[in-house]
Every structure is written in C-alpha cells, then in structure tokens.
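During the reporting period the student researcher (J.K.) took over the structure-prediction task from the postdoctoral fellow and processed the backlog of single-chain submissions. One of the processed entries is reproduced below for the supervisory committee.
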Amino acid sequence: MALDTALSAAPEEALLRLYANGDSLAARELARRFLPRMLAYGRRMLGDGDEAEDVAQEAMLRLWRIAPDWRTGEAQVSTWLWRVVANLCTDRLRRRRGVALDAVAEPEDDAPSAYSAMVNADRAAALEAALALLPERQRQAVVLRHLEGLPNPEIAQILGIGVEAVESLTARGKRALAARLSGQRETLGYDHDD
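J.K. obtained the following structure tokens:
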C-alpha cells in the first residue's frame, strides 16, 4: 500500500522512467492518471465511445514505446500525451469528413434515469451538439480549456500554436456556444433551477 501511495504522489516523468525500467505499477499509475481524461476528451471530440477508447489506447501505446527514449525536461508527459490524443482525434475526424452529422453515433449515457440525471443528460447533449458545430480548432481549444481544465500555455503546446491563439480560439468558441445555446435556456431546465 505504501508503494501505491508513493507512486500516486510521484511526478509523471519519474513514473515514465520507472516504467521504462520495467515497473508495471508505474504504468498502472500513469494509466490511472491519464486514461479517464483522454477517454472523455476523445468522446467529446469524436462523439463515439469506441473510437475514443481506440484513440486512448493508441496514445498510451505510443507513450509506452517512447518511454525508454524519453528526454527529461523537454516536455511534460501529460502535454505530450494530450498532443498525441488531439492529433489522433484530428486524424479520425479528417478521415470521416463527408459523413453526415446524423450518421455519427451519439455518446452513450450511463447515468441513472432520475429526473436530475435526465436534465443533466439533455444539457450535456445540447453542449455536445453545439460543440460539434464549432470549427475543429475552436472545439479542441474549448474542450481542453473549459472541460478538461488545462491551462492556456499547455493547450498551446498541445495544439502547436501560441497562447494568444488559444485565447482567441477559446473566446470565439465560447461566443459561438453561447449564441447556439441561448435560446434553449428554458428547454434545458435552467429557468427551474434554484
């Protein structure tokens, strides 16, 4: 148990070094830290849980392959991993261009069927639908900043652009989302919240 606690507090680069030296517990800790967020990001970008799993698995495989050659201090492991996931999502989105939006499956909702869960699901679906209408780079910036909580400098590294460009993309994306969702306030139950 003490080893698990020590690993959970270890910096990500240290975990990657441990994994490169054969420590499977370090690999498990890296997966615990990153897989859920990568899956959520993939679902938001691709609208498909199976594709999101494929992207997350591929990103982790690439991390495992690069681990022995990792150059400490050049990039954070998380930033590198986010960039790989973003690129994999972009590749999949580019391959499916020309596919009608209705042909893309909606993400599955595992929430219970209580009223509040239904309202939250409607709100999430409205947000997902509005996100899907944003240009790809705006959607990436908005999701990474406001749904994943990453700071602008890290997003800039992930997307390969400047911090000012991230700020511009997120601002334009938020304005577009607000405009698309503004007429749905009552439908989504916001007028009934306490």
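The committee noted the following: The radius of gyration is 19 Å.
J.K. will present the remaining backlog at the next meeting.
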